[in-house]
Amino acid sequence: MISTSKIGVSASRGGGGGAVTPHVFVLDEYPTNSFCAYSLQKLRAAYSGNVIKVRRSSDNAEQDIGFTGNALDTSSLLTFVGVGDGFVTTFYNQTTGGAQTMSQSTANSQPKIVNSGSLITDANNGLAAIQFDGVDDHFTGASLGAPHDLDFYRVGSTTDTKFIMISGASDKFSYAIDDGSTSTAISQNWRSTDLYVNNVLKSVSTRDDLHTAISIGTPTVVNHYNTNPNRWFVTVKIGRYWLANWEYDGLIQEFIFYNADNTDADRSAITTILMDKYVP
Hints:
Blueprint: E1 2-5, E2 12-13, E3 20-21, H1 26-29, E4 34-39, E5 52-56, E6 62-65, E7 67-68, E8 71-72, H2 74-81, E9 86-91, E10 102-103, E11 112-115, E12 118-122, E13 130-133, E14 139-141, E15 151-157, E16 162-169, E17 172-178, E18 187-188, E19 195-197, E20 200-202, H3 207-214, E21 220-225, E22 236-238, E23 249-258, H4 264-278
């Protein structure tokens, strides 16, 4: 559920029932093999860079927005955007390498973070969120380097009936969510048996199964693993299929790439940290 607010909420929410919990820096707790990490919350205590770059609709000017404390500086964001809309042009990587950004230079394809002067939040947890429109919004990561394993964690909420969240080319995608579809082509070059949603291993064999597991309308931490690193090169897209169609309609609050297959214990612990932050 999308909500808008004039004031950003920076506290983490408790995964067990909405109680406020201390902020945990997931990249400090689990730094090994962290490759790219993007969030509207601070992921590493020592990170001093910006969070996002935003374009405002009034004159198309752009400005970097950083953190205040451990959360997005929503005061600076709203002051810059004014009464119009704000769109994310760049999402900055918070890992120690820091070079790999997610970006979108095409105005019509930039996801939104401010709507008519109000911060977009997920009404379920009250935290700032980036809204993808289901038409053409997406990010591209253009400098991810050589072939990599990709252990991917994302936090968002949606009721979208058809989308692909991440793709690397026409034969590289995970997962193909499609309400009512009996197709068993649920992913390409991903380990299709290792889909976790809020720390629960899901048994999925069709695209409709994926829809049932993921498109539940409340914040979810979704984790899955790339099974063939030699097939994933340089560029990925977040929020759509490589070519066209399958665009994501929903909210994103965080996504993290590790370039190795995390152990079950580490995967569970990382997911728990994210759930404590985002899942009411």
